[in-house]
Q: What sequence folds into this?
């Protein structure tokens, strides 16, 4: 009887749309929503695997974890550092990307080859980017032995031992990796600007900079905002390159971003409850930012 | 050539050098014997392929018998694991994503929530899910299995599948499908015989894009695999953090992981932006 009812329900054309949604809600529930519920539960307990008590039997300690996280200087520093990182790399990548995109406007010989070269970093696994920059900035690596030797002589710089310099290498790696995406987005926007507008401006005697400031940039403004938002949210997640380059945050905690800190809390310190509370705080922050940011992304309710 | 053109080429060459520099150094390092790893020359004096061969040969000490720093596992198993996990989860994500995209596009099913939710999963840092996933998967004894990674990757990349494919489905005039429905075709037949063939190109592009994402995923693989299900990026990190510094093998390993990405990446070059910006950029 039950089977017949189910089959009848499935056969009705008006339910077809719902059937189509089933696989994805199944997967999302199984892999994301259940862990998310576990995360919320864990953040209110004092579960530490080493104690040998199963997580569902651990004591509920209320808001203790959250209070500890908010007072945790290392957490706050990691958060601040990540925000500084985002506000450093994204403008650099944007300006470089815009510059390169302007360089590519118009026709010239070898455009295709140069495009392929510039897009190359997008095709490199993030982990390999970290590895490449790690190898570049080693004490005897090419940055020291080829680029800086003529300037400073034999003295080598220990990039990964100085907090500021280590942070700089991480920034450079990120800029290397993500400028091409900025370039690609901005370039595809710039070539879409109608040629007749630019012709008209030229006839009226506008200079190149005026055309850029008055016509090209205003027209691709929505695109710029989308690019900046997406890059900022992605840059906030940075983990792979830092994990390889500085061992997830060295020297000390000089390059420890929020992802690295939460990773260490979960894996190295194995303090899963504390990590959950920190994660939850970050999630709420990102969700709020996304809610504000989603408007320019123009996700229309359809 | 005008001054402007010359200036343009100078800048272009600077950008190209900046882009290719790290790669050139890696290639150079991967072809050098251990004795030359610490020297500054870019073109190796003795060109060797040992660094690559040793990667597939677990019994050979890394760095050759000359340096004997440490022994690492062969990358054959991680490579196969990566292929299995990345391709299986790509197929799942595309199939599931297609159904969802079709439902959202044609039947307005799921409402805005599905779209918002999938977008949000994309924005959250992966690290915030590490603790609960660890607990969840170890409760069900799924740590270090392929199925754990496949399920997770499917869920994480579903966002892209839905958003990219929805763009393609939206562009097909609904009248074409309605015509087939009026002829008496079942909804499933319409999907398999009308919609699917029409967006074949889009399916392929998004599949390759998702494959790239799965192939490079590192954090979850690092947390959820120990030995059996280890993927290539995790293996690279093992090389990188090994006690004996095996720079040549590290470089070779990083480059080997890059090859499939470069081939696929250039194939779908013009779709890459769509993937990152959810179709907002043409």
A:
């Amino acid at each position: 009887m039950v089977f017949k009812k189910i089959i009848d329900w499935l056969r009705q054309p008006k339910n077809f749309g719902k059937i189509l949604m089933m696989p994805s809600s199944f997967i999302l529930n199984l892999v994301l929503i259940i862990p998310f519920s576990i995360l919320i539960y864990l953040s209110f307990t004092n579960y530490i695997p080493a104690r040998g008590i199963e997580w569902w039997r651990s004591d509920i300690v209320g808001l203790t974890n959250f209070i500890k996280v908010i007072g945790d200087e290392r957490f706050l520093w990691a958060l601040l550092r990540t925000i500084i990182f985002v506000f450093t790399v994204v403008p650099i990548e944007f300006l470089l990307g815009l510059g390169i995109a302007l360089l590519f406007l118009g026709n010239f010989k070898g455009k295709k080859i140069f495009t392929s070269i510039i897009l190359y970093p997008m095709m490199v696994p993030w982990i390999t980017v970290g590895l490449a920059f790690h190898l570049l900035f080693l004490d005897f690596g090419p940055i020291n032995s080829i680029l800086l030797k003529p300037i400073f002589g034999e003295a080598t710089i220990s990039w990964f031992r100085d907090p500021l310099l280590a942070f700089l290498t991480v920034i450079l790696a990120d800029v290397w990796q993500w400028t091409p995406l900025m370039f690609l987005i901005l370039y595809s926007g710039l070539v879409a600007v109608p040629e007749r507008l630019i012709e008209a401006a030229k006839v009226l005697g506008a200079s190149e900079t005026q055309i850029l400031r008055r016509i090209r940039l205003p027209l691709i403004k929505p695109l710029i905002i989308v690019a900046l938002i997406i890059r900022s949210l992605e840059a906030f997640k940075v983990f792979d390159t830092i994990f390889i380059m500085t061992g997830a945050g060295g020297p000390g905690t000089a390059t420890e971003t929020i992802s690295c800190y939460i990773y260490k809390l979960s894996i190295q310190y194995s303090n899963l409850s504390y990590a959950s509370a920190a994660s939850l705080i970050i999630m709420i922050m990102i969700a709020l930012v996304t809610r504000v940011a989603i408007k320019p992304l123009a996700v229309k309710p359809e | 050539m005008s001054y402007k053109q010359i200036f343009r080429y100078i800048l272009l060459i600077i950008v190209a050098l900046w882009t290719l520099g790290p790669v050139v150094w890696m290639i150079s390092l991967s072809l050098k014997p251990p004795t030359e790893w610490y020297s500054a020359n870019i073109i190796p004096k003795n060109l060797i392929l040992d660094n690559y061969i040793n990667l597939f040969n677990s019994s050979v000490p890394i760095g050759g018998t000359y340096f004997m720093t440490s022994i690492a596992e062969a990358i054959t198993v991680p490579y196969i694991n990566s292929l299995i996990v990345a391709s299986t989860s790509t197929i799942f994500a595309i199939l599931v994503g297609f159904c969802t995209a079709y439902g959202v596009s044609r039947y307005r099913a799921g409402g805005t929530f599905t779209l918002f939710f999938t977008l949000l999963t994309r924005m959250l840092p992966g690290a915030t899910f590490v603790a609960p996933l660890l607990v969840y998967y170890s409760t069900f004894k799924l740590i270090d299995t392929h199925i754990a990674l496949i399920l997770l990757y499917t869920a994480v990349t579903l966002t892209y599948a839905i958003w990219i494919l929805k763009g393609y489905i939206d562009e097909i005039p609904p009248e074409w499908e309605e015509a087939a429905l009026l002829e008496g075709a079942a909804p499933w037949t319409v999907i398999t015989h009308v919609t699917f063939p029409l967006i074949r190109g889009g399916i392929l592009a998004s599949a390759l894009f998702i494959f790239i994402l799965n192939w490079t995923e590192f954090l979850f693989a690092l947390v959820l695999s120990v030995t059996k299900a280890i993927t290539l990026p995790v293996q690279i990190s093992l090389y990188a953090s090994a006690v004996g510094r095996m720079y040549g093998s590290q470089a070779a390993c990083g480059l080997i992981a890059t090859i499939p990405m470069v081939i696929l990446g250039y194939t779908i070059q013009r779709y890459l932006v769509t993937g990152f910006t959810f179709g907002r950029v043409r």
About this structure: Residues 87 and 224 of chain B are 18 Å apart (CA to CA). Residues 62-70 of chain B have pLDDT under 50 and may be disordered. Chain B touches chain A through 100 residues (CB under 8 Å). Chain B has 14 helices and no strands.
